[in-house]
Amino acid sequence: MRKNRLGMFVVLAIAACATISVAQEKKPLSPPGEASVKFDDGKTVTIQYSRPSMRSRKIFGGLVPYDKVWRTGANAATSLKTDADLIIGGVNVPAGSYTLYTLPGMNNWKLIINKQTGQWGTEYSQGQDLARVDMKVSQKSSGMETFTISLDKTSANSAVLKLDWENTIASAEIQEKK
In a 10 Å sphere around its CB, with 0-12 CB exposed, 13-18 middle and 19+ buried, how is residue 99 labelled? Predict the structure, then answer.
């Protein structure tokens, strides 16, 4: 009887330690975000992503290193869904679903449009790239605490995709292909 109690105590102690370890490892996920634009003909472009925060960290050139592919947000891969054929930075992007990555640099960025979808954000396959598009990069004096993607409509069938975080805005022109 005494051996059974000791054995049960050991099992419960191990289970408790495993539970504490799992709870400590599990980090909260960044909140979801969505950006969308509706063109005058009713067709839409939607981007779904996660919104990490700076929390006093150096972002570009620090947490997000220069010259390495970045998942463009946090958690699951950032998705772009369009029911319109698009031209993004001069590149044809057929209607469909894609994953967006970026290649941040100190002075220039590339937007990566990838054909693989549904993966975790760090599961990048360069062989699935549809295109790499140059982005315009600008600096601003005040910082953006939480990563934000926006699609700002500029005409009946065009918009600007903006990535805004820390003191950096990277942007690319999007136009509906007619």
Answer: buried
CA atoms within 13 A on the CB side of 53: 7
Sign of CA dihedral 150, 104, 146, 167: negative
Domain ranges of the chain: 29-176
pTM of the model: 0.83
| H or E element that contains 18 | helix 2-25
Question: How confident is the model over 3-45, as pLDDT tens digits?
Answer: 555 555 555 555 554 444 444 456 678 999 999 999 999 999 9
Backbone angles phi, psi at 124, to 5 degrees: -100, 135
